[in-house]
Amino acid sequence: MHNTTSSPVWKRKIHEIIYEADTPAGKWFDVILLVLIVISLILVMLESIPGLGEKYAFEFITAEWIVTIFFSIEYILRIISINKPTKYIFSFYGIIDFLSTIPLYLTFFFGGFSALLAVRSLRLLRVFRILKITRYIGEADKLSRAIKASGPKIAVFLFAVMVVSIIFGTLMYLVEGPEHGFDSIPKSIYWCIVTLTTVGFGDIAPETPLGQFLATLIMIMGYGIIAVPTGIVSAEYAQDLKKNNETNRSKESNYRHVNTQVCQNCLAKKHQDAAQFCHKCGYPLHD
Amino acid sequence: MHNTTSSPVWKRKIHEIIYEADTPAGKWFDVILLVLIVISLILVMLESIPGLGEKYAFEFITAEWIVTIFFSIEYILRIISINKPTKYIFSFYGIIDFLSTIPLYLTFFFGGFSALLAVRSLRLLRVFRILKITRYIGEADKLSRAIKASGPKIAVFLFAVMVVSIIFGTLMYLVEGPEHGFDSIPKSIYWCIVTLTTVGFGDIAPETPLGQFLATLIMIMGYGIIAVPTGIVSAEYAQDLKKNNETNRSKESNYRHVNTQVCQNCLAKKHQDAAQFCHKCGYPLHD
Amino acid sequence: MHNTTSSPVWKRKIHEIIYEADTPAGKWFDVILLVLIVISLILVMLESIPGLGEKYAFEFITAEWIVTIFFSIEYILRIISINKPTKYIFSFYGIIDFLSTIPLYLTFFFGGFSALLAVRSLRLLRVFRILKITRYIGEADKLSRAIKASGPKIAVFLFAVMVVSIIFGTLMYLVEGPEHGFDSIPKSIYWCIVTLTTVGFGDIAPETPLGQFLATLIMIMGYGIIAVPTGIVSAEYAQDLKKNNETNRSKESNYRHVNTQVCQNCLAKKHQDAAQFCHKCGYPLHD
Amino acid sequence: MHNTTSSPVWKRKIHEIIYEADTPAGKWFDVILLVLIVISLILVMLESIPGLGEKYAFEFITAEWIVTIFFSIEYILRIISINKPTKYIFSFYGIIDFLSTIPLYLTFFFGGFSALLAVRSLRLLRVFRILKITRYIGEADKLSRAIKASGPKIAVFLFAVMVVSIIFGTLMYLVEGPEHGFDSIPKSIYWCIVTLTTVGFGDIAPETPLGQFLATLIMIMGYGIIAVPTGIVSAEYAQDLKKNNETNRSKESNYRHVNTQVCQNCLAKKHQDAAQFCHKCGYPLHD
Predict the structure, then answer these.
(1) Which of A94, A226, C192, C255 is most exposed, with the fewest beta carbons within 10 Å of its own?
(2) Which residues make Cβ contacts (< 8 Å) with residue C242, sequence separation at least 6?
(3) CB–CB of C199 and D195 under 8 A?
(4) What's the half-sphere exposure (Cβ side, CA atoms, 13 Å) at D230?
């Protein structure tokens, strides 16, 4: 137990509302933020529709300023409510928050770049932070564990896909040639991946019998290949499920990291439910 | 055991024929209903074929009236044969029955809306009620259980798909732009989902090298992603299968809800095979 | 042990060569037959290529006559070498053999129907009879068992696919209408299945925003749905694999039906390796 | 322990650098080679882009000569640094190395064949030799084992796919005919595989109602069929995973072939970590 002087009450309150979700105020804050993010994303999308952007230019810019100002306030509050602001500023979400707030100011001072405004789509990623509070945490965890466990296998597999695409792409370029849409080797490789993944746009399609025969080979390979990652994830996931069942029966499984407690000092997460001090820096936690 | 006065014999008979399927009359009723639904669906489809609808207008309208009158009579009988008609009227199937019977009357009195007539396609859903009697109940049950069990996982997964689509959709809009068919961000997102799900219509296709490179990334991701829900359902289903095997060996599994008994009073289902009274309201059941 | 008079030696020899594959002559017969079938299939295909059919008309007709005469002789030998010819004539393969031999005679006597000649493609099915002798019997068996075991589940599933297609097909017809290629409800349903199965030809594609939104729903459903049959077959197959492993360890598994012995009297198969008499009609078997 | 006279030190050194990867020099050699291969592949691709090849003809030819000369030197060193050069020359990688080095010399002496230059894409295969040193060996091994184990099943399955394609291809040819793009039976079969594998280019699409109905059948079959190989690989892989877990617990699993030691005499691999002599020819190994 460290002997640190705790931060003032107002700072603690803000920290609790913004970073955690176990008080009514904290929950409301998250819901409002979620609604604002969704609204702002819909605005970005609607603005891109031809005709609409120009017609309602004033409405769009007004709504955008309201959202941006709210996000700016939130960003500042996030910085001042923790003890080591740099911890937040240079964290993944800190950068996302900054990038999704700044574009409007930049276009205001330096003129409008549409590309810059599209950066606002990154706001979507902020949704993930909020969704941490839901009951889906456990599931998302399991899923990402299954994917991680099969990572190297999938890498090997994707590498094989690349090799097949490059070799067959070159072959198709030689067989079909620019007169049937296979303009260059990179474009042939693009077509090969389109075919191997069973997407099949049809913007380029083989026209010579030999090209169609090669295409047939690629498709059947793609058909067989699709089985591999599925089989891997499936088996991996089944094992995870089994292990989980076994662990659940044992005693150690009673403890799960599903509270939203965040240390005010170092932003560490996954504290035990009854924890009174941060398990990483020893700073006192408040419920 | 409640002490209720049982309903008159004719009411009981109609209830047995319409709602249940363990008497010859009940089975015949179901078969005729099934045939009528299928015929009426085929009529709706044929009517929509250009040229055919106008040419045989009289035949179509006549056949439609015959089907509609039969369905109207069935609807009325369903209402009068149970003790609490509102239980049926506001149930899922009650509403479906009403919606799939009323359009013709409305177009007769208020003039024809083709959109209204298409509502008749909802009759298809009535098929499900009849198919309850088949041996597929058990299988459908198992399937829906497996899907339900993997519900949250699939939700997490679909959410991830949405996020990928929105981010890559915005990117493709910036890279390809309206001149290659990526008119707006929503349309780009639509294209992104078309690609990620490996459908690949080809109505929109990237034409710049960078756009094609991004498309390649999306496709390979879609290829890897398709493995996840498959793996989940597969593992979940395997576990269900295993559990079922274990249960089947134990004694409690001797009882299965596969009879078609329906309480005349409250429409409750899944009565035990030897049940004499409704397990929900105590009303007497008759075989 | 029945006391039947065995058939003459020449009949026995022919039976052994044509129906079985455990003598050198029998194996050679099968190989020649296989080659002839493949050649004749290639001929049918080449003949259909525009220009080629007319140019080499004489060569094609000559080759076709040679193949047909060989098949005719084989057909007659099959009939005379067994005791009850009707057993063969009305069996599945008997009908296939007849249908794939007769077209040329019919076109010779009654003039050429190209549709009739395409019936010769059925010869392909004869390949299956010959492939019985390979080591793939066991695997094909396992596969078909896994598919059969998941039959009802897949039926339930396909029914669900049909329902989704009909409902969304009707919706798309109302939303997009004939001006965007959705000419009639059946065509809309066709498009819906094309999309749901992730094939996506792109010959018809939604153009209105609402239609594209509905298409997105269909695709994501198709994406999730594809997981179901895969999961089922996978789990079913895994169980089969496990059961097999357990059985293999026990004693009863020492016996497998992989010889090609066929009873000359009743065409029964799957005799035990050391069997001397048919297990179905008691007729003597000869090695 | 054989009593062989060891080769001179310079030869040993070169062998160690080129064939192995456990010394710093050996690792650097592999990295440089990998970079050169990747660069040369990118050159081949860029050269094929219309306009680019002609514009920077001089730069491309210069870069190509540099790469080719490096590869030539490497090829010669590989030959002289082992005791039995023919072992390398006629090995798989020996032939690949030769084929991917020679084209430039041939075009230099005998004039340019573009097809010949595309052979340089084979350099890609050389990447595999280098990647042997990575931690992915184990995973690739497991994967290829799972695929091998399900080989016969997948063969049976692919054969079934072929049969379905030929029969439905012939049917579609008869139903749709050359006027809707189904020019010949081989092209119809090509279309059938495009559809069955859910690729769906859309360059050919059925237009008659009957053709569209048949296409629907093919697609639903493809949808169901895709489940089979996935299920097989999945189950097979799950078993492999299980077996591995069991083996890992036992003692024999402590030994793994992941070092890059290669015998200088006979190019044998997979030596034990502490091995002093080749397990195949007895020639001394040096660390």
Answers:
(1) C255
(2) none
(3) yes
(4) 33
